[in-house]
Task: structure prediction
Amino acid sequence: MDDLVLALPLNRSTAGAYVQFLKQYNVVLFNTEPYIDYCISCDGELLPLEVLFGFSQVDAEDVLATNDMYEYRIPEDYCAIASINYGDLLCLSPQGEVLYWNHEVHDLYLDMTVKDGYLEQNTDLSFVAESFDAFMSMITKTVVEDD
Result:
């Protein structure tokens, strides 16, 4: 597993807690219980967690595959560590902070005025937690009401 960890776009001096998590738990799936969401609060909104990425043969759970897929879409030197809120990501910054990447706000968009052009990327991600450990302590179990 150490070789796989070395392939991640992580700042080794600030990502120790995440690396230890990977070695102990690897992938964590959150959407396995009916009527239960595991959420974090970001900017006053409860956001449901889907997967904490690890090393998996399933691309949607794999941290390497996810970071390859989102290369040039999330800020450089950031590492996607979780899927959240049905299409968004949590990223670990080079400083060790956990930040929220909202695909509707931060993804690259085609610039229709330029052939093969893209609009400038919004890299101002929302702050979630000062560290991976602080993020983990924020997770709450929420009962989802049946509609």
About this structure: The beta strands are 28-29, 36-42, 45-52, 79-84, 88-92, 98-101, 110-111, 117-118, 126-129, 140-143. The longest strand covers residues 45-52. DSSP finds five helices and ten strands in the chain.
